[in-house]
Design a protein that fits this description.
This protein is an alpha/beta fold. It has one domain: NADP-dependent oxidoreductase domain (TIM Barrel, Alpha-Beta Barrel), CATH 3.20.20.100. It has helices at 28-33, 38-50, 66-74, 103-117, 137-142, and strands spanning 3-5, 12-14, 18-19, 55-57, 83-88, 124-127. The longest helix has 15 residues, at 103-117. The relative contact order is 0.15. Residues 138-143 have low confidence and may be disordered.
Length: 143
């Protein structure tokens, strides 16, 4: 496996990153994308780690958090071997503040991701996509 520096962080990651979007999911889009059960996730993650992959990427919205839960379970006992990335931005509940890139949603999102992943740290926390409401704050307040 080849490794590269992750920008200027001093952290080396494998050139291949294991994406966890297909982990879990019942019904609708998530079942069509993957619907992978925990046993298959464990096998895939362990095989990737054994092959030298040290970079895993997931997101809070993948299977409505189920991907993070399954990733955390698969990493049990091997968390220290992985550069773990997840993302924030998508809708995670019915409330007005359960989506977007407000400080409130980001702080709630990181806490929820930490719990789902079963870890006390995340190595790379990313913005999943832009937040159009950040640029139209005055419109959101009038609704």
């Amino acid at each position: 496996m080849k490794y590269r520096l992750l920008a200027d962080t001093g952290v080396f990651v494998s050139e291949l990153c294991l994406g966890a979007m297909t982990f879990g999911g019942k019904g609708g889009m998530w079942e069509m994308i993957g619907g992978m059960p925990q046993t298959a996730v464990n096998k895939l993650v362990h095989r990737a780690l054994d092959g030298g992959i040290n970079f895993i990427d997931t997101a809070d919205v993948y299977a409505t958090g189920e991907s993070e839960v399954m990733t955390g379970k698969a990493l049990k006992g091997r968390r220290q071997d992985v550069v773990l990335a997840t993302k924030v931005r998508g809708r995670m509940g019915p409330g007005h503040n359960d989506v977007g890139l407000s400080r409130l949603h980001i702080m709630q999102g990181i806490e929820a991701s930490l719990k789902r992943l079963g870890t006390d740290y995340i190595d790379l926390y990313q913005i999943h996509r832009s937040d159009t409401h950040q640029h139209r704050g005055h419109l959101a307040r009038t609704r």
